[in-house]
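Homework-ish question, so no full write-ups if that breaks the rules, but can someone show me the predicted structure for this set?
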Amino acid sequence: MERFVYLSNVVTLKLDEEKCTGCGMCLEVCPHSVLEMNRTHVTIQNRDACMECGACSRNCPFDAISVDAGVGCAAAVINSMLGRSGGDCCCLDDEKSAGKKTTCC
Amino acid sequence: MSNRGCRTEPFTTINGPVCDCTGTPEPALPRMKQSFIIGSVQTSLGIVPQVASTLNRRDHWGTVKARFGVGRMDYAVDPGLYALGNPDGNSPVFVSANYKMSFDALRSSVPGRTGWILVLDTDGINVWCAAGKGTFGTDELVARIEATGLKDVVCHRQLILPQLAAPGVAAHRVKQLSGFTVHYGPVKARDLPSYLDAGMHVRPEMRRKSFTLRERVVLIPVELVEALKPTLAIVPVLFLLGGLGGHGGFWSGALHDGLFAVMAFLSALIAGAVLNPIFLPYLPGRAFSTKGFFIGTLMAFFVLSLRGFDWQMGRGVLDAASWLLIIPAVAAYLAMNFTGCSTFTSLSGVRKEMRWALPLEIGLASFGILAWVTSRVFL
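A: Not a homework solution, just the prediction itself:
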């Protein structure tokens, strides 16, 4: 399978190995195999493959992982720069932007 | 697990759609009058609609339309509980979004199996995007479990969620709040049969989100449709500018140079919105804009070679140079916008890319337009 990698050394993923119990929940939810299990805890193996979806941190019962989660979508960033709603994600759903459709998702 | 008096034999099935109980319909139950309902199942909660496990022509047509952006923002099914086959109290519960394409993918991927489908209200947005926004989230899931009375329908306390719902759902919180254990199934619904057969075990490759050629190509129509609106505004302007200046009259200029300008613009559109998605893994650079600049530059040389320029005259050189600026800039901008469709770009990365790419794209396009107008009007 072709493997895509975006820019290197940009993601905000952080792991607190002290807090990690090695339950492995984050390994289950990561769509890009960013994390790997050590003997006692997980480690970040493939940092640049992380897309900051936030699944790991949301599902960590021990708050061991943090990431500034968001959707990597240029149209959404432009919308938020222009002060339009829907800046957090390109798939707009609120009333103000109901008629406006963007290119993604 | 204690049996709470729920049924382990199949519930009564009523063949054919029943009446859409006019008067006071149970709010928690989805409407019967939805195109994919083939019957209903009588449960302790009332009549639960039974869904078809195959897609008909109407479903496929709906998918095609949504892929072209037609009715895409209003392609929803009713939230609530549905039956797949003739489920009983031990049947698995699959959770989905109320975007019809997500729901269709689920019900058509487990043919011949029984289960319950719990559809969350995600405002008609697909699973992954809704999870990113939080509408496919812990609160909605817990509330929907309560509203549907799922606890009285099934004996177990297990839910199967698509893995891509994980950015919005905290499995441990759901367990605390509702008593249900969340199992993250495979990324793709079509891997569900092997997941179920393996005793709810997901193989590593089913956990990874791919971005295959096919997955990229289906996104192209909506990219083009989205680009249509600005295109309709730009094309007349190009015709007009083509008519002004130049040698010969307005109409000869518009038909000759204006038409070429329109073609050049459309070529940039094809480079950025069609060729970039297709050749994405093979284009140089990591930033999408870099890939777009590359394919746009190739396209610009191709378009210029079709026309032939008078390289001896300042006017010809400036004209050609203007398109060597405009086409790559437009292609790079469109390619950059494809980050939102891709399955692997991070927000931090997109922000970093945009910091240099957006000013460059705007700058090059502005210089290009300036050069083109100059070559027409002043030389």
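Now go work out the reasoning yourself. Hint: Chain A touches chain B through 50 residues (CB under 8 Å).
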